[in-house]
Amino acid sequence: MSGGPPKALPSTGPQSLRDMPHPLAGSSSEEAVGGDSTPSPDLLTARSFGDKDLILPNGGTPAGTASPASSSSLLNRLQLDDDVDGETRDLFVTVDDPKKHVCTMETYITYRITTKSTRVEFDLPEYSVRRRYQDFDWLRNKLEESQPTHLIPPLPEKFVVKGVVDRFSEEFVETRRKALDKFLKRITDHPVLSFNEHFNVFLTAKDLNAHKKQGMALLTRVGESVKHVAGGYKLRSRPLEFAAIGEYLDTFALKLGTIDRIAQRIIKEEIEYLVELREYGPVYSTWSALEGELAEPLEGVSACIGSCSAALEELTDDTTEDFLPVLREYILYSDSMKSVLKKRDHVQAEYEAKLEAVALRKEERPKVPADVEKCQDRMECFNADLKADMERWQNNKRQDFRQLLMGMADKNIQYYEKCLMAWESIIPLLQEKQEDK
Amino acid sequence: MTESNFSLKKIEISVSEAEKRTGRNAMNMQETYTAYLIETRSVEHSDGQSVLTDSLWRRCSAFEWLRNYLLVYYPHVVVPPLPEKRAEFVWHKLSADNMDPDFVERRRIGLENFLLRLASHPILCRDKIFYLFLTQEGNWKETVNETGFQLKADSRLKALNATFRVKNPDKRFIELKHYSDELQSVISHLLRVRARVADRLYGVYKVHGNYGRVFSEWSAIEKEMGDGLQSAGHHMDVYASSIDDILEDEEHYADQLKEYLFYAEALRAVCRKHELMQYDLEMAAQDLASKKQQCEELATGGELFSIWGVTTQLFGQETPEQREARIKMLEEQIKEGEQQLKSKNLEGREFVKNAWADIERFKEQKNHDLKEALISYAVMQISMCKKGIQVWTNAKECFSKM
């Protein structure tokens, strides 16, 4: 490893997170880890983000040690730091350079993933790998498995819905690339997900397939336990705040669906308008050929209509390529969020059931048995993670939609400005006095 | 106002009102028609004030009679056309109903325009029947009938598709007829497509109105985003409703094009008239030539082989007296024929001269009017673009506050 952080570290190279002492554990004898092991606010700077002692194992706490509350408060504090501008970032990921690969069995597209980071989880400061959609799908599944208490961003749709779209067309590939880029950036921005081992492997491994085969099972304790929660427990009632989130997501997805339909309808009408304009403009040209003095003015009008047609085509293309995909992404997002909510419900249901069972046993116990406490842990962790992610999601959503809708307005303004320019430019031509031909 | 100092140049004509009426027609059946109020004002030199001199109601058919009369008496003039009776080239929102108030209103404007065209035509403005149309309330129809214009009308002019083999037409008229056919075809096509364009544009704008509703509903579940969404939605509603006025204005442009579509017909009528005159001339010349030939044959004793000669052979010889009589008759007919040919020739040349003068006048008017129409169309488009920019800029601002 070339050039690690200045502090003396016990080892080089990637380490299994299990070997690392938990920052919230009792005082560590491994001073080499770098000073205080208790996270004081001073240390919670972005620089120390890279320090091992502040890296949380993926979202959970070792059983029987620090209380769950501190992990969530730590999360909150980390989140706040995240909101500081990009200068404090230490991980940058980009998706670009799509290439078509033609093999005997299949043809597919790969994208270049470029990673730049000063985090210690990365051996090198920079990585460049090639991935295909399948690999993104794998990553997402792994994240869902290993971080079930968190909201995982959606991927663009796997299969092409409308039959006639060419999945190797420039427009389709570009739309997909943008969505995949967005996907990775959302993970990058997440204080917990960005440190996920699968994510790291995805960004760095030369041969991802080899890793896939190994089947890395780095699940957190919470992850593991959530995975094994049987669905047999029925939840009595969702706590108010989660019920509110559920209702919100339902209405939100509904409204987005309506907007999607409206946008599609607008595109359809605009295309039909375009078809007529394409016939309309040339008729002025035909007429111009009959005339003498009017020939130039008529030809000018024909050209004008042609310019407006071109501008309109750009507008419809932009709406299809930039506006619709983002809407659909958010619909997928809310769908996956609703299933996380359901998982949370199951965890709570299990806890409540076990608690009830204990109460019914009517045993005089000084304290709640360990397994019920584990359940409570799980539930409270889940709730905390979800709340934090929900808040982050709301902020991002607001920014994303502000940008999306402003973009839509902008495209329309540009369309009208192009048309305006065309028509204003022929006024002098129309007003010109001409010699009779 | 007496006829002698009648100068329509100092007159203001307006078709100020349109009224639906019911009455009984010639077959004593009840019918509904529209009557139009024509007001004539004379403009005083000194102070530019106008005084109402005449005011009467005329129904559509009266306008048609006037025009038909002018077509007969001024065949060398490109007679201004009447506006359409039925709404054609409509886009779906416009009613095709002739009783629709918008249509009646546009018709009123069209009829006013027709009268103004007549009043500004150097020849037509002096016509007595036109003057009476504006001033004589009762019995105007009878007066027109008395001119006998219907009898004078050449029915062949109406047979548009009949072809006459004309050997030596004036090339310019042939070209002009060709031009008027092409003009008719291209303007029809233009109006048809424009109507479809209007339809589609209407659709685009109206669908945006749905954004208004959904943004409003969405804003209800949002905290910080709510206000921005709500107010942006309002702008989408404004956008959607703006198309009604825009398309109404465009109808005026369509009407200007329609006038010239119908003018093409008037142009063709003049070419047709020339064609017919030329045809009659050539027929008369041909007839004269054959009569001359007959005469010659008779005079030379029928040695030349001819149908005439064969006939006499079939029916027996005729007496010299009979032959003399026939020659004399022919000579008279030839004399008459020569006179007629001379006058027809003269007529023909006069017609060509006068018609071409009016055609030149018409060309200038057409170029001027259509240029103006194109300019006003461009101005309409500019206004539409500016409105669009305004609305979307407002919406963008609302979004930025989300």
UniProtKB/TrEMBL annotation, chain A:
Chain intervals for the UniProt region annotation (Disordered): 1-74
Principal cellular location given in the protein's record: membrane
Membrane topology: Peripheral membrane protein
Domain PX span(s) in chain numbering: 89-210
Compartments, record wording: Early endosome membrane
CDD domains per UniProt: BAR_SNX30 (cd07667), PX_SNX7_30_like (cd06860)
Organism superkingdom: Eukaryota
Alphabetical keyword list: Protein transport, Transport
Compositionally biased intervals (Low complexity): 59-73
Family designation: Belongs to the sorting nexin family.
Subunit-level organization: Heterodimer; heterodimerizes with SNX4.
Identification of the protein by name: Sorting nexin-30
Automatic annotation (TrEMBL), chain B:
Native organism: Rangifer tarandus platyrhynchus (Svalbard reindeer)
Matches recorded under SUPFAM superfamilies: PX domain
Listed name of the protein: PX domain-containing protein
Pfam families documented for this protein: PX
Entry's transmembrane regions: none
Keywords: Protein transport, Transport
Keyword Lyase: no
InterPro entries cross-referenced by the UniProt entry: AH/BAR_dom_sf, PX_dom, PX_dom_sf, PX_SNX4, SNX4, SNX4_BAR
Domain PX: 14-140
Keyword match Transport: yes
Record-stated family: Belongs to the sorting nexin family.
